[in-house]
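Dear support,

I submitted the protein below through the web form. The confirmation email said the job was done, but the results page showed an empty box. After a refresh the structure appeared. I'm attaching both so you can tell me whether what I see now is the final result or a partial one.
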Amino acid sequence: MVIDVESFRQKARTWLAEHGPEYADFKQGDRRLAKKFRADLWDAGLLGITLDKAYGGQGLTDAHQKAFSEEASAYRLPPMGEAVTTGICAPTLLDFGSEDQKARHVPAMVRGDETWTQLLSEPNAGSDLAGLQTKAVRDGDEYVITGQKVWTSGAMESQFALCVARTDASLPKHQGLSMFIVALDLPGVTIRPLTQMTGDAHFNEVFLDEVRIPAENLVGGENNGWRALTAMLTHERLALGAGTGAGGSGASWAASASSQFIELARRKGLDTDPVVRQELVELYIAERVLRYMGQKMRDEISAGINVGSKGSVAKLATALLSKRSASLGMALVGPGSAAWDPADDNGSAYADTLTFSPMQAIAGGTSEIQKNTIGERVLGLPREPSVDRDIPFNQVMQN
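What the results page shows now:
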């Protein structure tokens, strides 16, 4: 029996009233509490609300999801998903995975039992992902994968990855790729953290030395990897720009920046400064536009409408807004944003945000790539020249 929206709302309200306060002290980065929250929500039937019942979800409507979101907005809660695991990898697996792959992994991804990452970029194939050289060779009932990946978000904390590798070098570079599920605890997988200027190591390089995986881990068919990868990148840009990946996007931080900065300006007596007021108004407007843009795309996805390259618009806007927000925060705080008391646990917050913000213009495709995509696929401008597009990959000189 399908529960009606108002009964579902009451169920959510009752559960949140009982359990919501225990998460009020959640701090960003507390993975233990975030995982517990998702598991508790899932077990209560309040997570995976619109997810098909075949994959452990509730199979309910967008109206049910909206009702829960409205009730949850009254509480300070951990994120209900992860940008990479639930915003990128799970939707890609739902698009291209086999029924067995989806039934096995999607419930664990949404509940928080499995953390996933992407094995895409390489030292010589960043913006031009079709030029990747990691290879996967069929050997009986297995594939043997060898290569190096870099800028892999959260690999140290992940159990699985969606990996794109070359399965046929005799085909042009876009045609000889395949996608695989790779367990990151397999022999031959080495993960090394990359320290950023924030001092953190969110990114990693991953070495794959003759890693053997079952042939059943192939996602979407052999040599169909570019199609799967294109869909994955669309999910990534939506997760980072439109907020479809709960809890991990730059948009979610930026969306709260203007209200935070307005209060900060008041405390510092800057709220009457005309220049500061103009900066705050422009930031507020940009946030609202991005929020409405993200909501429009999420609604289109729910309605089965292909948003296509519009995700690149949101991704580019998020990168610009992130940088602007971080700079304004530093300016409002003043010298204390660059030099703080070591005893202050939150003293580095604004500096960390500023030094982390350039990542938004790189991860998920650089802003330059987004501009090319927008120009070609949204505005209809001529395609950038690509002299090696139709040449067999093993005949391209740089390879």
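Response: this is the final, complete result; the empty box was a page-load delay. The chain has three domains: 5-80, 116-223, 230-378.
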